[in-house]
Design a protein that fits this description.
alpha/beta; Rossmann fold; SIR2/SIRT2 'Small Domain'; 2 domains; 3-stranded antiparallel β-sheet; 11 helices; 18% strand; elongated; binds ligand BJW; binds zinc ion
């Protein structure tokens, strides 16, 4: 089955990969859902929403500081690296990620669309002015915007918030053009990200899913590979290299 996907991939020039928290799991970054996931320990609406930030900005910042520290200690894994190699072998490659952990950048991927923001950036809660070099935020004394005095918050898309329109529009355009669309390490429950593979398939793309378990998308994909992305993606890239050189 893997050989069949590689055979198709070899003849594709437009490839999109959508990643979720699962691709960073092997680096040691917790996923969101599932027993060990962040949402198993913390309630999303109490941490990842504007309401939460308005009512208790201190707790929200404490949580983000904890996650920043955790993420700062980890490294990209073999799955991230394989996607860098894949990008170098495909004419028009787009990596669309829901992750905010910066690991695709650290690995060396270039064409990245970050749908849900980046944990290292901050912005003003009112006017959205970016504050990239604020350093550590003290939850007891949250800095305010020099333009409008709004509180500084992480530049992350919380529930109920719109995604950056330029980024999501580009992602949909790439999905519509894709010949092959990989869905890697995401439960495919959060929209509009989870709509991208469906749109790609409606426009003729072959859908390939890589996940350690079945997801909301598994019944409609053309190929479902059950396994860890850090093991599967390097194999896929190696096979593609072999096929290209023969
Ligand atoms: C491995 C592995 C290994 C593990 N190898 N695999 C349509 C229908 C219903 C609802 C909506 C809809 N459209 C919009 C909504 C509302 C909402 C939504 O989708 N809700 C659903 C949950 C029901 N969406 C929004 O609010 C979005 N905004 C929006 O649509 O604005 C317009 C609007 C406004 C107002 C009203 C309505 C619409 C914004 C969504 C923002 C999501 N933000 C978060 C949190 C950020 C906080 C933070 O990070 O600090 O982003 S939620 C969280 O989920 C995070 C992730 O990016 C996102 C996706 O999670 P992901 O990556 O899939 O992780 P998991 O944990 O779910 O899955 C991991 C997977 O990996 C699992 O499958 C494992 O098996 C697998 N795995 N190890 C391979 N080694
Ligand atoms: Zn402001």
């Amino acid at each position: 089955m893997l050989e069949e996907v590689v055979g198709k991939l070899k003849n594709c020039s437009k490839v999109v990969v959508l990643t979720g928290a699962g691709i960073s799991a092997e680096s040691g970054v917790p996923t969101f859902r599932g027993k060990e996931g962040l949402w198993g320990k913390f309630k999303p609406e109490q941490l990842a929403s504007m309401d939460a930030f308005m009512s208790n900005p201190k707790i929200v910042w404490e949580w983000y500081n904890w996650r920043r520290e955790l993420i700062a200690k980890v490294r990209p894994n073999a799955g991230h690296v394989a996607l860098v190699n894949l990008e170098n072998m495909i004419d028009e490659f787009t990596l669309v990620t829901q992750n905010v952990d910066n690991l695709h950048f650290l690995a060396g991927s270039k064409s990245i669309l970050e749908l849900h923001g980046n944990i290292y950036r901050n912005k003003c809660m009112d006017c959205s002015a970016l504050y990239e070099d604020e350093g550590d935020i003290n939850p007891e004394r949250i800095p305010t915007c020099s333009l409008c005095n709004g509180k500084i918050r992480p530049d992350i898309v919380w529930f109920g918030e719109m995604l950056d329109s330029d980024i999501i529009n580009r992602a949909f355009l790439k999905a519509e053009e894709a010949e092959l669309f990989f869905v890697v390490g995401t439960s495919a429950l959060v929209h509009p990200a989870a709509t991208l593979p469906i749109v790609a398939q409606q426009h003729g793309a072959i859908l390939v899913e890589i996940n350690v378990e079945r997801t909301a998308l598994s019944d409609i994909v053309d190929f479902h590979f059950e396994g860890k992305s850090g093991q599967f993606l390097p194999k896929l890239v190696e096979l593609l290299k072999e096929q290209i050189s023969t």
